[in-house]
Amino acid sequence: MPNSAEILSIKNQMEDHLSNELIPFWTQRGCDRQFGGYLTDYDAAGRWKGSEFKFIVTQARMLWGFSALLRRYPHNTFFYRAAEQGASFIIEHFWDCEKGGWFWSTDRMGVPQDRGKVVYGQSFALYAMAEYALATGDERGKIYAERTFDLLQKYAADTLYGGYFENLEPDWTCSPPGYPAGDRKSLDIHMHLLEAYTTLLELTGSEIHRRKLNEVIELILLHMIDQDAGCGCNQFTIDFRPIPAICIRRTWNDDRGSGEKIENPMDTTSYGHNLELSWLLNRAAHIMGSEKGRFFPLTEQILRHSLTYGLDRIYGGIYRDGPHQGEALVCDKEWWQNCEAMVGFIDAYYALGDEAAWEAFQSCWSFNRKYMICHEVGEWRQLLTRNGSPLISDMGNPWKGIYHTGRAMLECTSFLGKIWTNQTKHDMQTAIG
């Protein structure tokens, strides 16, 4: 069991990283002061790479980030202004006034470039608008979050097999099969709908939002979890038969930039996604007011799987991908998995009291603090080898903003504060006898 001083030390380290590195990095660079919205493409030295495009997923993630920071620090006027101008840019330039929904990309000035309706992008826009409304009280956030939700039910919901069609054209029809992936569903997108619907329910308290959140959760539990292995599956047919994962248009795996090719597709699992799903489910249960521990059995399963196959016991940190049972296939370390792993492990410790979860959390933080974070610049490197050598040192890209890194620090410091309080009370009771 960690002692109070150990807990407080890590909490202070994370708060220092958030306040003195991450926040300054994005307050100095994140807002596009010429055209509005956000700039996210930064090299290893923190220099803007001059990207010509803006994507709904990263614009929304930045809006979510500044809104979440405003909720933590409600008197910070910069966070308010950064969120407000971002919301205005997104609404003005990404919203499809004719057919509804959010375009996938625009140019830097906001002229639409890719009008596709990717549910991944819709989910992040919904998530960001709901968080923005919670942080600022701006009614536009609630209006556009609810509009997005309604459009998803109208055009993307699969009324035959359940869940949602994920890759859609500008008119909301399904994309072709294969690389455009109109014939596939994924844990990834349904997990992010779970994330978005949780925050929407927190905002509105609406029964329809509660019901649809619970539907997504039950669908994930029924179809998308390998119950024997205790991990998530990856991609599925429309009727939820697991199939080998391929690169799909408009996804991070296709845009990673490391030159990887999937020669022999497999039904793999992502350790970072599994741990992210675990803590998002527990957060959803809290927002829904469900019985405490509703998802703890799955938390236990995912923890065991992650400790057995995903955690690097030699160097620390979490691997990227592997089979459902067996050693990891991709052993390099990427920023977002290592962010989500920390939150997943500390959430598991808080929920279960399992010391192995605490040790895994410590291991990930130690690796990230030493290798993943570029302290001289302030953000996290994109991709490292297993032992921490940089493969891609960019601080930002079309998918990488303040979302994973900032959220990890906000969530972990919150958990650490609760754990420290509980441990301090325990120490006092022990001392009293």
Walkthrough of the structure:
The protein has 433 residues and is mainly alpha-helical. It has one domain (51-250, 264-374): Alpha/alpha barrel (Glycosyltransferase), CATH 1.50.10.10. Helices cover 54% and strands 8% of the residues. It contains 13 helices and 15 strands. The protein has helices at 4-29, 56-72, 77-94, 119-136, 139-156, 187-204, 207-223, 252-255, 271-288, 296-310, 335-352, 355-372, 403-432, and strands spanning 53-55, 105-107, 112-114, 117-118, 167-168, 184-186, 225-226, 231-232, 235-237, 242-243, 269-270, 321-322, 333-334, 383-384, 390-392. The strands form six sheets. A three-stranded antiparallel β-sheet has the order 1-2-3. Strands 6-9-10 form a three-stranded antiparallel β-sheet. It has a three-stranded antiparallel β-sheet with strand order 13-14-15. Strand 7 (225-226) and strand 8 (231-232) form a beta hairpin. Helix 6 packs parallel to helix 9. The radius of gyration is 20 Å and the shape is globular. The mean pLDDT is 95.
